[in-house]
């Protein structure tokens, strides 16, 4: 049975930041023409309920006290950050993480409420935007904390009656920061020995600390280094935890492997979308065993089919030559949509029954060509990315084919691809 309703989101411009998303509630029928709703011969279908289901499964691996910070950076790993976050708000989740202040701004402008952390090493240039849109920075050095404190002083005024700091334009509480500690990844964060000075700087400047965090470098397949990182983190934060400061460390791989799942927060990213942290069969099998499932399918149908004689050449650089008469279908998507050019001559599409059809010729910016049989018409739907773990064109298997990881497959999906959102609830 199809879901009760579908949300059709209009395409965004390539800038994609300042636009307000338009929503249309559509009653789903078994014969719904989703291509018409998408306004294009290709689109992404996102199952919002699958995302929530995945979060619940991951939460079940944690202690009862542990809360979820949903990572929706990089357009929610290609799934659509605004739509995903708004849906999770309706489900009762109000902790999010993004990578940049611009990503947080987009969420706020589209009505997302709650705590939004900006990950990484936040810099001075982001401060004004973070204050304006009530975003929580990740502080990793004293210089940033001093700039943050100075900027707060310019944006806020003290109310004499109760001493509360109130924004001149809003009623937000005084902005907090997250302190990040580098426990071995050697990328973002202060060193463990520097944590004390950063915490003192926050205290001296009246800056509330939301939490202290770290990030694992190889939680999926290196238990020794992960346990060592966790040990360093817990030692560095022990005194602050006794004072009630919250801490968090676990990403998707750590949650799945059981590291740091008893702390105050976990930060699922890739796994909450049902994509595996690694492209291996073992990772995919573990996802299935846990009951996780991919939330996204990429669907397309041909815009043109030609019967060509033997000897004809197809695509840029005439990369494919017909050895006999063949039917060649053209699809209106390409590497500008996120279909990797390295899939030229080796990628496949599958029909609804799972039958494979080979990409022939070069993947170009806006088109791919596929050898098809007589059963295929311009009305035949195909999966470009199938929402499972076993098909040759699942995100895991495409990543393995490209010698990369499922993260790159999801985050490469262009904003020019229409996204249709499925949910059972009419008001979501």
Automatic annotation (TrEMBL):
Cofactor(s) of this protein: pyridoxal 5'-phosphate
GO BP: any one term: alanine metabolic process
Keywords noted in UniProt: Isomerase, Pyridoxal phosphate
Keyword Isomerase among record annotations: yes
SMART domains listed in its UniProt record: Ala_racemase_C (SM01005)
Binding, substrate: 187, 365
Modified residues (N6-(pyridoxal phosphate)lysine): 73
GO molecular function: alanine racemase activity; pyridoxal phosphate binding
One Pfam family it belongs to: Ala_racemase_C
Highest taxon listed in the record's lineage: Eukaryota
GO-annotated cellular components: cytosol
PROSITE patterns: ALANINE_RACEMASE (PS00395)
Residue span(s) of domain Alanine racemase C-terminal: 295-422
UniProt-listed InterPro entries: Ala_racemase (IPR000821), Ala_racemase/Decarboxylase_C (IPR009006), Ala_racemase_C (IPR011079), Ala_racemase_N (IPR001608), Ala_racemase_pyridoxalP-BS (IPR020622), PLP-binding_barrel (IPR029066)
PANTHER family: ALANINE RACEMASE, ALANINE RACEMASE, CATABOLIC-RELATED
Stated name of the protein: Alanine racemase C-terminal domain-containing protein
Lineage: Eukaryota, Metazoa, Spiralia, Lophotrochozoa, Mollusca
